[in-house]
Amino acid sequence: MSLNNQLESEYSGSLKTELTLGLPGGAQAPKSAVKRGFSDTVDLNLYTNSEDEVNVATHTQPPPAKGQVVGWPPVRSYMKKKMMTVNCKYVKVAVDGAPYLRKLDLQIYTSYKELLVAFQNMFTCLTICNVIANESKIVDISNGTEYLPAYEDKDGDWMLVGDVPWNMFVESCKRLRLIKSCEKLKLMKSSASLETSSSTSC
Amino acid sequence: MCLFQCIMNYFPEEVLEHVFDFLTSHRDRNAVSLVCKSWYNVERCSRKKVFIGNCYAVNPELVIARFPRFQSLTLKGKPHFADFNLVPHDWGGYVQPWIEALAKNGISLEELRLKRMVVSDESLELLSKSFPNFKSLTLVSCEGFSTDGLAAIASNCRYLRELDLQENEVDDRKGHWLSCFPDSCTSLVSLNFACLKGEVNAAALERLIARCRNLKSLRLNHAVPLETLQKILVQAPQLNDLGTGSFVNDPYSESYFKLKAVLQKCTSVKSLSGFLDVNPRCLPSIYPICTNLTSLNLSYAPGIQSNDLIKLIVRCKKLERLWILDTIGDKGLEVVAATCKELQELRVFPSDLHGVGNAAVTEEGLVAISAGCPKLNSILYFCQQMTNAALITVAKNCPNFIRFRLCTLNPVIPDAVTNQPLDDGFGAIVQSCKGLKRLSVSGLLTDQVFLYIGMYAEQLEMLSIAFAGDSDKGMLYVLNGCKKLKKLEIRDSPFGNMALLSDVGKYETMRSLWMSSCEVTYGACKTLAEKMPRLNVEVINENEEMEGRPKDKHRVEKMYLYRTLVGARKDAPPFVWTL
């Protein structure tokens, strides 16, 4: 299909284009046979070799991914690269009984103590109670429910938070869960038992 | 005029020169040069600072011939859209011939400022060895050099005051460039290596800072740990401008405690940046600095969430310049509006560059800022959506904009409420802001917006257009209307030959025109080049399979034209055709 035909068919029914980035609803696209709108740039096959091709196009570059155009938004490539290097380790945090999960960036903390404070800030009904040295408990003061922080490691095992050095923990933690203390026994049983130790206890 | 000229010529040249000394802006000096021959001569011999907006508009020999005694040179190379990967690597912009020529002709260079140029280690070494009085090097968005080149600068420039590296792509050889500053170097006033990726020797850095008692500006890279920052600040509490390195520490540790104590003493810090790696729990340590800050750049701190940002900003009542990420949100911008009454410049950058769909800012944030900050004159705003009503309100609130750059993340998004193009909104901006010099438009836009721009934007010097307009009329409105236009850059817009060729003389009044993914054809570019010998019309061809030149009727993907005194450049790569 020649370039112009393709353009016209794009516009004759603007709702047809799957990439409706420009015009939600019924707003009319200005009709012009040669207007190249944003959606055209992305959808258009610019690499035809037909005789009436009037385009000295960039044959060597791969077509941009749907919805992405070279150089947009116009942010300096230096900035883009810099932001990509930022160390970031977001993990999901689940609390037994809560209807939704949260996410935490483990890289910004430097100790278990900070992590517990983060839980406290994130789930405002909870407070830290340092009962025994290595096992800090988190308590919902409204109903006295105790929670233990646990995490799923790289091997898929659920572990109690606090046993390994902090950096090792950050490295291996895939996600976090605040388990109700009473559930702890169940968890240990299911881990101790044979097959997969990936969490099925939720 | 005759009488005036007689009177002025009565004064000896030294007096004229002394009077001209008060003129520092190159535009004023250019204007003065046009008055008469004697003023031209006095001015040219006394000009100390030369500004070249396009390195290919002249050559070094011409500059040296006209200004034999200059000491400071500013050069800009690649077109602006090179920042967004629209210009191929190896396009050009080499500083080497300039340094060679200056060295050969005995120019006593003291200051060199380069933007978007290719700088090699060889160039840096030549620079460091050729000019004994060299004092100041500023490189912005440059590439082509490594830390070896920096080592040469550090080793050889005995009186170096300023080494300012902003957003350059530097090959970090993990050498010891910083350790190359000799023990005798005590002259540093400004050191910015934030863009480097590698480590520097902490002890060498501390010693350097300790002996440079005049150091006012220091921007570290993110490899410098917090402990080192603390030690440095003990030695240099007189800093005005600080860019932190890594700002990650355990807030319960002793080193953090020491940091807090030393930051309380840094009462001269007016400008703050950095925080690429940050533990938000450590931010309270900078609260004491916030009260004096006039400039804050957190655009490289994606680790600081909205509520922590707000806690910082609420303490920065004297802020005049704020660069931030859109993680601040509309609510955060309302806090800025309520707090920063001295704000002049705001830049809100997008944090989510991979389309994951994180919340950005909207027109509400912009309206809040315009209402709360009466001194606002410069804005760069990346936003999720915009409305005409908001822009009209902003125009009413802030008639003093000099720079207005709006960037909708979807480049053709219409008014979020009415679904109409954003023509009227931008029209209100240009009508209200009579001093507007720079404008970037985005969103769904028809030819109408360009009618407004041509009609009202009388002071406009730079215009950036993307995915806008319907026909050649749009571009014509701008070319005919904006008398002071210097730089026009257009991408992905339906402007073609008729617009390009309607007023060919216009381009000699401008620095440059960039058009990519538009409708101009190869034939039209040739015609333009034939008619205007004092323009370089460059066509960038990225089609490797093409044999020979395109046919006249073929569209040109990228065209860059600029006025020049020296004809086609000799360093153009094979894929750049100067017609």
Beta-strand residue percentage of chain B: 15-25%
Assembly annotation: heterodimer
* Biggest sheet statistics of chain A: 7 strands, mixed
Q: Main beta sheet of chain B: strand number and arrangement?
A: 21 strands, mixed
Instruction: Please give the most extensive interface between any two protein chains, plus how many residues each contributes.
Output: A-B, 52 and 69 residues
Shape of chain B: globular
Structural class of chain A: alpha+beta
The average pLDDT of chain A is: 65
Element pattern of chain A in H and E: HHHEEHEEEEHEH
Model regions low in confidence, pLDDT < 50 over at least 5 residues of chain A: 1-36, 42-67, 194-202
Overall pLDDT score of chain B:
94
Determine the N-to-C terminus distance of chain A: 55 Å
The DSSP helix count of chain A reads 6
Principal-axes geometry of chain A comes out as elongated
Organism (chain B): Penstemon smallii
Subcellular location (chain B): Nucleus
Protein name (chain B): F-box domain-containing protein
Main location (chain B): nucleus
